[in-house]
Specification:
alpha+beta; 8 helices; about 45% helix; 2 domains; elongated; four-stranded antiparallel β-sheet; about 10% strand; single chain
């Protein structure tokens, strides 16, 4: 029971750090699918009878399992060792991506684990390309945070300003329905006390117009 409880805590830590990564959502989804071994690598495709052989196309001496394609294949190791000094000649022997991700969390800073996950998603992408995509993503997130309005800000509400005494102020709005061929106008006429006045006479409407208090609509000819 103690071992099961320990494994459960480790899994919770993996999921917690995975979804908290400062990477695009697509990278998080990839990592989650990789941890559950549900990516379309050749071993899985052979099980579904989509391909006949599961041999790795880059290293024919082994089957293309997920951890082989991402980590153990000599071609993948060339990618990891080319620029990622943290992983250069790394001697980790892992059996799954979840184990690889957990080891990264154990030995490396969070930023390196995030970079590792981006490279794992696109093993053919160079280290500089992965680093650049992360920098652009984080820059956009910072701009988004800066642009978000403060919760303490009170929205500005425009107040109605009364006209001088002896005059009437007219406020109006209009909407066009192109499918039905109608235009509608809402008119509010108020004096300096804010008391509504009778709707002004409407000019320019066809004989198919209808007046309802302070609103009218007419058919477009």
């Amino acid at each position: 029971m103690a071992a099961q409880s320990s494994n459960a805590r480790k899994d919770q830590d993996v999921w917690k750090h995975l979804w908290a990564m400062s990477v695009p959502t697509a990278v998080k989804n990839f990592a989650w699918r990789a941890c559950h071994e549900v990516l379309p690598i050749r071993v899985n495709l052979k099980k579904r009878k989509i391909v006949e052989v599961a041999t790795c196309p880059c290293y024919e001496a082994a089957e293309e399992t997920l951890i082989h394609a991402i980590w153990a294949c000599p071609a993948a190791q060339d990618v990891w060792g080319s620029h990622l000094s943290y992983f250069h000649k790394c001697s980790w022997v892992v059996l799954s991506f979840r184990e690889l991700f957990a080891k990264g969390l154990q030995f490396f800073p969070r930023e390196i684990v995030e970079l590792m996950t981006v490279v794992a998603q696109h093993p053919d992408e160079t280290y500089r390309g992965a680093l650049k995509s992360l920098e652009v993503y984080r820059m956009c997130k910072q701009i988004e945070i800066i642009r978000q309005p403060s919760m303490e800000q009170v929205p500005h509400i425009a107040a109605w300003c009364p006209p001088p005494q002896g005059t009437v102020k007219i406020n109006y709005d209009a909407a066009l329905d192109t499918q039905q061929g109608y235009v509608g106008v809402e008119i509010v006429a108020r004096d300096h006390m804010g008391i509504s006045e009778p709707c002004p006479e409407i000019y320019g409407a066809s004989k198919d117009y209808r007046v309802h208090g302070s609103s009218w609509s007419c058919h477009i000819q």
